[in-house]
Amino acid sequence: MGAMAHVLAVNPVPARSQMGSSLGFHIILACFGIAFAAVTMTAEWIGIKRGDAAALLLARRWSKVMAVLVAVGAVSGTVLSYEMGLLWPGMMGRFGAAIGLPFSLEGIFFFLEAIFVGVYLYGWERLPPWAHWWSGMPIVVAGILGAMSVIAANSWMNSPAGYTLSHGKISSVDPVSVFFNAATPYETAHMVLAAYMVTGFLVAGVYAVGLLRGRRDRYHRLGFAVPFTIAGIAAPLQVLMGDIIARFIEHNQPVKFAAMEYVPRTTRDAPEWIGGIFINGHVYLGAAIPAFDSILVGFSPHTRVIGWDSVPPDQRPPLVTLIHLSFDLMVGIGFFLLALAAWQGWWWWFHRRLLVTPWFLVPCALSGVAAVAAMEAGWVVTEVGRQPWIVYRVLLVSNAVTPSSGVPVTLGVILVLYAILTVVSIGIPLFMSRRWRQGAPAEEETEQVPYGPSQAHAGVSPARPPAVRRTSSGGPEAR
Amino acid sequence: MSPSPDTIAVAAILFMVIAAYALFGGADFGGGIWDLLAGGAERGRAPRDLIDEAITPVWEANHVWLVFILVLLWTAFPPAFAAIMTALFVPLSLSLLGIVLRGVGFAFRHTAERLRMQQLTGALFAAASLITPFFMGTVVGAVATGQVPVHPAGNVVAAWTSPTAILTGFLFVAACAYVSAVFLVPEARGRGRRDLTRYFALRATAAGALTGALAGGTFAELSLSSPHVFAGLTGVALPLVAISIAAGMAVLGMLWAGWYHAIGLRATAAVAVATVVWGWGLAQYPYLFPTSLSLGAGSAPKASLVGEFVVAGLALLLVAPGFVLLYFLQQRRMLVAAETDADLRVAARLERPVSGQPAVAPAPVAARVTTALVLALLAIRAIRDVFSSPDHR
Predict the structure, then answer these.
(1) Which residues pair with A284 in a beta bridge?
(2) Which of A118, A65, A109, A444 is nearest to B28 (CA)?
(3) What DSSP line would sit under A55-119, residue for residue?
(4) Least confidently predicted of A324-328, B186-190, B217-221, B370-374
(5) CB burial readout B349-359, b (16+ within 10 A) else e
(6) Does the structure show a pLDDT above 60 at A477?
């Protein structure tokens, strides 16, 4: 018990901050890992099927961006695997046998993804078109299944199942119940849809900016339409899914739900708070819809909603205002994105044309950032709402955190590194697109001076950039 | 209590995966080390290009082995994982730092435009290739010497700074460089690059000799620091050690004789490395931490082990064919960075055909920049002349 007392003395806040920032960063790249291949392959499919050069060019350029994002994502994902042990040895030592199983399955899908990313990204030149297209298919499937595996592990932390404890140690495990715990179907579907929305709206947003700047060619229209359509299909499904999940959480993690909806005391006729700050039992600056929370939960104003007074104060989540406002932000953005998708859908239905008025495109340009904000807010609700538990009602965060003393240092390093990584993953695609717009093939092809496939092999010398143009035009003016 | 058969089976899988990472991941790290040692931008261009072509399409898939090691360890042997992660927090964090920096280097270096930026990202990539294997080596050294407590109360600095651990770190770095150079020899030969073939054959020989010497040193150190593992290496694991030495010698012989058979050379080097890893595993048997935590006491319940077995089977079924395809395409040089989009750009009417453009658009920009720079320099010169001490003139 001496060791336990020591563990209890550790302050988990730096570890939680490090885990939170690592996850918050990785999850954005993970979205691209899950969904970007599908977006790219849709463009490639259009390109091959219709002989559409603009679509092919989009697909090829997106795959270059994918190369950067996947590389950074692989790294930030590894950071998370390490951190599971570096930060939470108390959880992994006790429950690794259970929570490790979905992670192991994810390992397979990560493998498949990495292998076929290698084939897809570098197979453009020399694989036949359809063979190349099919080489992307495993990335799409593995992306979805891999996401489900990882999310299943998170679901297990929210809804632990499939194990028996004896003397504080796991004595037997039921892998199927671990994987398909009560929260798995809800969380996995929610996250996969979120990934398609984040990726779709972010990519579409880039081309919305292009369209706004007057580049109304087929290239930009397609670059907007393909990802926007994919995200637009996911948006209504997501709103529907969100409604179902909220009811599930009310049932499965009532205290988290109480924090999300400001329900301090178990009550009937629970009001639905929109916005508002919770201080000392009062909600300030919020609007309440009488009894609407009860209606949403049980379709009747007399439905009893459990409040956080149902558990002792030390088992209630901290920062209820953060949880509630994050939840509101997520829901609000969800409806905003749904409205955008509906608007475009309406216009397409009656006019068979892409809507390109600035009134529509300006919000579209911001839709990607909004989708990211919604997803991050959703994770804040899930993770902060589970506090103070790391494994819900089984293990406290403070009993899982590492006793090692270096966490504040690694937290600082991680923050700096992720700042750099953020600049890299936003800066490089921006930089690429600027260069693509300048449309100077010479620059694009001779970019790798000391680090890159040798130009000598391709018969292209960096000293004579115009030589590249010979391959495209065969024109006599190439020197 | 002797460990159950499924515990032994999963431990065997774990060591297979560690050997795979040592080989494939190690070769990629080694590539970074040779990149670091290749010399100036001009002189080192050819080897760097070869390294880059060989690594870029496959590094990510090779990296996944590491994730698999972590996952296997925490699922099948949770107490050992928790103890290692707590006691060796510092070297593990440093190896992670190396992994992150390497990733940034990879992401960046193909898109960095200016030479300065390319040198920076290249240096990042190369330096990270040193840091990661070194600190992973210290971790393995700390485990093998039994210096990781079963219930650590925090960092255990002494565990990974012992002479054995430090030596193991250097051994890992040398082994990565060795494997990489051996793998690059047929790579160069396949491209018909005689000069590079010799270049890497020479380096493989040197790195091989260094690795052998360091392995001997570590072995001698182990006799003092970890009697159990030393007894295992000279006892039950002796055949594996002998095979490793023989294979290592054979590789040196092949390199010396100039017999650069692609599969023969690689396979022999792979045997040399894998048998050392397995020898280490066998020598530790039946302990996870010699001699404080046994396999039996540190393993997960049966169902988790069976689960890992199923996962390994699935991996063999799904991942192995994928890897075969990847390496097949890579060896056939079907995987190359896209050469040009110019044809598509023209077809998509994003730009007019080249013939319609004025010749060489970027040149005037460069000329203007140069002119501006020259003018600026002259201006600075003039201002400095004016404000310098008058007696000078």
Answers:
(1) A277
(2) A118
(3) HHHHHHHHHHHHHHHHHHHHHHHHHHHHHHHHH-HHHHHHHHHHHHHHHHHHHHHHHHHHHHHHH
(4) B370-374
(5) ebeeebeeeee
(6) no
Which amino acid belongs to residue B145?
T
Q: What is the pLDDT of residues B129-182, one digit of tens each?
A: 899 999 999 999 999 888 888 888 888 888 888 888 899 999 999 999 999 999
| Helix (H) or strand (E) run with residue B355 in it | none
Distance of CA B25 to the CA centre of its chain: 4
| Contact (CB, 8 A) for A33 and A76 | no
A463 lies within 8 A of chain B by CB: no
Q: Which segments of A112-266 are extended strands (E)?
A: 163-166, 169-173
- Structure tokens, B157: 């600095």
Contacts of A417 (CB under 8 A, 6+ apart): B97, B100, B104
Lowest mean pLDDT among A327-341, A345-359, A424-438, B277-291: A424-438
Residue A371 neighbours by CB under 8 Å, 6+ apart = A194, A197, A198, A201, A202, A231, A333, A337
Give dist(CA A261, CA A257) in Å, integer: 6
Tokens (6 digits) for B283: 């020598």
In this prediction, residue A463 carries a pLDDT of 37
pLDDT for A475 beyond 60:
no
* B379: number of Cβ within 10 Å: 10
* In the predicted structure, residue B192 carries a pLDDT above the cut 90: no
Structural contact between residues A196 and A38, judged by C-beta atoms closer than 8 angstroms: yes
Q: Is A390 on the interface with B (CB under 8 A)?
A: no
* Burial group, residue B2, by CB count within 10 angstroms (0-12, 13-18, 19+): exposed
- What end-to-end distance do the CA atoms of chain B give, in Å? 93
What is the model's pTM? 0.83
Chain A residues whose beta carbon lies within 8 Å of the beta carbon of residue B78: 92-97, 100
Q: What is the CB-side half-sphere exposure of residue B320 using CA atoms within 13 A?
A: 8
Rounded to whole angstroms, the Cα distance separating A445 from A462 reads: 8
Contact at CB, A6 and B153, closer than 8 angstroms? yes
CA B248-B254-B260 angle, to 5 degrees, is 120
B188 phi, psi to nearest 5 deg: -70, -40
Question: Are the C-beta atoms of A242 and A218 separated by less than 8 Å?
Answer: no
Judging contacts by C-beta atoms under 8 Å, the chain A residues touching residue B108 are 424, 428
User: If contacts are CB pairs under 8 Å, which of residues 108-137 in chain A contact chain B?
Assistant: 108, 110-112, 114-119, 121-127
Q: What is the mean pLDDT of residues A67-76?
A: 84
Q: Is A442 on the interface with B (CB under 8 A)?
A: yes
DSSP letters of B16-27? HHHHHIIIIIHH
Q: pLDDT tens digits, residue range A35-66?
A: 999 999 999 999 999 988 889 899 988 988 88
Reported as type and span, the H/E element at residue B362 is: helix B362-387
Q: Phi first, then psi: what are they for A217, rounded to 5°?
A: -75, 175
